[in-house]
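subagent[fold] <- orchestrator: predict structure for attached chain, return C-alpha cells only, no commentary.
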Amino acid sequence: MSDSMEALCQETWAKEKAELALKFKKEFDTGQLNEWEFKDLMEDLVRTSEIIDKGNQMKFKAAAQKLITMALNAI
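subagent[fold] -> orchestrator:
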C-alpha cells in the first residue's frame, strides 16, 4: 500500500492526498490513531475529492450556461 501511495506522490493532482494518506497510515501503524479514526480520516480524503469534483462540475455548467445565454443574446 505504501509503495502505491508513494508513487502517487509523484503525480501533482494526487500529491496532497497521497501525502495525507501516508501520514495517516504511519500514525495508525504506530498506534497514534485507532482503527476507527484511521478509517474515518481515509474516508474523508475520498469524500473531499468527491465534493471538489462536484463543485468543478457546477462551475463548468454555470460557465456553459453563461456562454449559451450570451450566444442567444447575440442573435
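orchestrator: received. Logging for downstream: The chain has three helices and no strands. Residues 2-74 form one domain.
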